[in-house]
Write a structure and sequence with these properties.
About 80% of the residues lie in helices and about 0% in strands. The protein has about 375 residues and is mainly α. Strands 1-2 form a two-stranded antiparallel sheet. The two termini are about 45 Å apart.
Length: about 375
């Protein structure tokens, strides 16, 4: 029996996806051993951290279409919450990171209730305002947050663990957190909840008229996004060891999350990861080459313009569309093998012969 071309293509696609996942996992696992020096390994940690933050942002941006430039508020709160629990309450660093994520998720509930009632540019403005308010609070409240002097954290693995080994451990920790994020995004994407979120993205009013609880769905995914973003901010704080409110609550951090997701493709699972690799490497390259200049900001602006003009859906959707051009197109009439055609003819002849016999019997 001949296998239809469409089925063969589907099987090939699945095999290619599995092989791609295995190759990606192999590259992640082997990266620390392949890194030539500690600096490159630290760049890998930065890129992994960006991938966590961009994927966390994509729970809101990718599923609902709401563009938030203020997600730095949740990463900053996650970092500061982790630091304050360690330095003020002497909590275990890893428990402090999780507890800070839960607290930020609880904080995101009233924020989401207030901000998700508006759409479009109004939502963007509200998200930016939240970051600026938190920046002023954490800068002014010096007796508790350290103010502009920041907070220094102790090393979570102890002082006997050297910096390169700490980079390696945190790279794997970020990779593990990223794997959890990707699995959650994949599960939501294939659930009824995910279908409702995508209906909101396409046409929120129509989705609501069809019975989708739009506000509840938006609020739930908003809180999930804030929780994971806070975990990413807390893990970065444990790795870097120093927090500064100007950097933690920066509009640029939220803009990077959006740029990474748009570059890779906000509607795809691995889009933010691909965008984080490209943007993270580009930023670290320009910083290493040009020091404290603003060259990396110019490069990011040019990259964003290229994405908006030539790849509005991102790299992965563009590549997928290019591949689909060379795939065999499904025929409007199903392909039938020679054996199937002969069988159909024999069945038709048998049916025709029996019908003629019945008619002759009736005449008699």
């Amino acid at each position: 029996m001949t296998v239809p071309a469409r089925a063969r293509t589907s099987t090939t696609t699945r095999v290619a996806k599995v092989l791609g996942l295995l190759v990606l996992a192999g590259l992640v696992i082997s990266f620390p051993s392949l890194a030539p020096d500690s600096f490159i390994l630290s760049v890998g940690v930065v890129i992994a951290s960006y991938a966590v933050l961009a994927t966390s942002w994509n729970f809101v941006g990718g599923f609902t279409g709401y563009i938030s430039l203020g997600h730095a508020a949740y990463s900053g709160l996650g970092g500061y919450g982790t630091a304050l629990l360690i330095t003020r309450a002497d909590v275990n660093p890893w428990l402090a990171m999780v507890a800070a994520g839960v607290l930020v998720a609880a904080f995101a509930v009233p924020v989401g209730i207030a901000s998700l009632r508006v759409r479009g540019a109004s939502f963007v403005i509200v998200s930016i305002a939240l970051v600026l308010i938190l920046l002023l609070v954490f800068q002014s409240w010096g007796s508790f947050t350290g103010g502009s002097n920041g907070i220094r954290l102790p090393r979570p693995f102890g002082d006997d663990v050297l910096r390169p080994e700490q980079h390696e451990r945190f790279f794997y920790l970020h990779a593990a957190l990223l794997a959890v994020l990707l699995l959650c995004w994949w599960a939501i994407d294939r659930s009824r909840f995910g279908m409702g979120l995508k209906a909101i993205r396409e046409d929120e009013d129509k989705a609501q008229s069809l019975g989708v609880p739009t506000f509840t769905y938006k609020l739930v995914v908003f809180v999930i996004s804030a929780f994971f973003t806070a975990l990413g901010g807390g893990m970065y704080a444990l790795w870097f060891g120093f927090l500064d409110p100007i950097f933690q609550f920066s509009i640029l951090v939220g803009s990077y999350m959006v740029l990474m997701s748009l570059l890779g493709g906000i509607r795809s699972l691995f889009g933010p990861l691909l965008g984080a690799v490209i943007v993270g490497y580009a930023m670290e390259f320009f910083k290493a080459q040009y020091g404290d200049t603003q060259a990396h900001l110019i490069a990011m602006g040019a990259l964003l313009a290229i994405v908006v003009l030539f790849m509005p859906d991102g790299i992965i959707p563009a590549l997928r569309g290019l591949v689909n051009r060379f795939r065999p197109q499904a025929a409007s009439i199903r392909e039938v093998s020679a054996a199937e055609l002969a069988e159909q003819r024999r069945a038709a002849e048998d049916t025709g012969g029996s019908e003629r016999g019945e008619k002759e019997e009736v005449r008699r």
